[in-house]
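Escalation from tier 1.

The customer reports that the assembly of two entities below gives different structure tokens on two consecutive runs. Tier 1 could not reproduce it. I'm attaching the input and our single run for tier 2 to review.
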Amino acid sequence: MQTETGKLMNGAEILLECLAREGVDCFFGYPGGVTLPFYDALVDSHIRHILVRHEENACFAAEGYARATGKVGVCCATSGPGATNLITGLVDSMMDSIPIVAITGQVHSKLIGSDAFQEADTFGITRPATKHNFMVKTLQELPKIVHEAFYIAASGRPGPVLVDIPKDVFQARGHYVPVDTIHLPGYKVFTEGHTGQIRRAAQLIWEAEKPFVYAGGGIIAAGASPELTELVEMADLPAVCTLMALGGLSSSHPNFISMPGMHGSYAANMGMTDCDLLIALGTRFDDRVTGQLQSFARHARVIHVDIDPAEIGKNRIPDIPIVGDVKRVLQKLNKVMQELEAEFKPKKAEARRKWWTQIRSWKDERPYDRSRAENEIKPQHLMDEIDRLSGGQAIVTSDVGQHQMWAAQLIRFNEPRLWINSGGLGAMGFGLPSALGAQMARPDKLVFAICGDGGFQMSIPELSTVASNGLPIKIIVMNNGCLGMIRQWQELFYNNRLSSCDLDSFPDAEKLAGAYGFKGRTIDKPWQLAQALEEAIKEPGPYLLNVRVTREENVYPMVPAGASIQEMVFGPVQPVAV
Amino acid sequence: MLQTISTLLENKPGALLRVTGVLSARGYNIESLTVAKTLDPELSRMTIVVDVEERIRTQVVKQINKLVNVLQATDLTDAPAVIREIVLVRVRCTQESRTTVLKEAEIFHARVVDSSVEGFAIEATGEPDKLDEFIEVMRSYGETEVSRSGAVAMSLEGRKLRLQPPVPAPAAQTI
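Tier 1 run:
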């Protein structure tokens, strides 16, 4: 769209101009009555709109786009039901700190509050679901608000921002005056990090005998992978990446231990428990990582770097708190580390060697279970094969549950932004729509959407979006015929009284995919697996591979909820009542 | 324990709800809340008194500080500050007790704002505890109705207000 300053435009055109200035090349949405003027203006825009089949998936797809690129993901929905359908995606991006701008239509401003057709108090409903939200009242304030929304979404701790626009603002005509500056006096962004604290942290790291790096999603959000890798290599530190940080340190890096927490590895959790210095970077001490807080890293001093001051001391009081952008902080930290290297490094060399020997023996003692069966496909076998074909390079999205944990355990991610999942909120039905967004953002990449048979059936409508856009996503359903994680908990903690976890009747994958015009297949024998996956990848278009796996397989190790993380369970035990 | 938080925020629709939302989302009940514009009409000063567990106090103030519309939130609970409240009391009293009621009001530096044959409407300001006492005394004279403003607080320390400087907006791109 070619525009000149001061040109007479309507609100919809001005919004598109603002989106173009923000570098938006594609967004995801679903039109409705009040957004018709916007969709009309879209006809003349170069910005690509992907019509999803449900608004929830518009937000999930925007998240997939944002998670794969680091750019702000944009989604759009109409008033009332359109806006309420976005909520799960908004909360999801809030929990995982993903930059999203959601645009919703609102009824004519004169009708607001009159229970008009398709009216909902979107501004009120989404307030606790967003980092910030806006209601636009006049055309004049529209450009300012849109740029503020993008700035808030992407800066500081990223998150979702919603802009609610009444129909008459879309329609109003006025002179578009570009916005020069964004001024939000109360919006505090802390980036630099306290120099004195950083120096103390560097000293502590060199002085520690059993240091351990606990890297979180902030590493990915800040683009701090190179700095993390530099730190880890300089001081030869063992490091874990949380579910949100996988790929932050390459999974193939010798210093990478694994994911920690409820389904983390033995070595990761023992390392966290036994270390004398925990270096927490861009992370929030989530309950799924720490287990019982009182016994978490009990003997360790803690360095905690986070951009959000409210995360510091929320769950664990650190010895060295550093508020700042983890990338900037690590840059400074690495510099100070270098200065101190010659003086300090030799002092603890012996202790560090012992520490690594200990960690390696934990790793060898109890590696992740990669067992295979002769006559059925074990879920671990499936993930192992995907890992082999990906070679740490493919984008992998997932739903929520057992398959998510196995994927996180067994698939390597050699770069950031390859592993895309709903971590904090744990929203089922996330895998397919987020793959859609990721594939739009990265057409060059091989994208696997690993879904459970439960989550997949929540997102089946998006097969249509995948087909109509010809997106070559490889949809892999890990089909165990039940809600696996529910079944696992019922088995372990509810005396095996199985309740509403059966998912009998799964559609024929070949027919289902065929109905949308692409290829699909169901397999259930281990010898079919490698060939079937290779066939799926070779297919130029989308592919639906339904893999029937062992039903009664549980994810181990497992830390029972509320237990301390060294109390891992490694295999079937006598069921206990809770 | 009751916590007093003073908040300087932008005078914008929804700003009040964002602040109270931080508290209600955690299940805390607000004891009192006052809000009015400041010398700068675009800003409001809010004083909240809320019953918050000791261990979560800092967290609550940090979360309020994080809000985009909030310029500064300060925990005044243990800080040097003056905290005052206004109360309007309507007391029905007998002819015989009228003089005594007026005397009592004087002791509390309260002011009669309305007088009728049934009794008085009295305005008193002071620390919330002192007003509790005043209300108790008035109730001893007869049927009483009370309307309290909630606490208004002012920090006695100079606090530097750190504001975020403007940042440039993205310029037009040539496509």
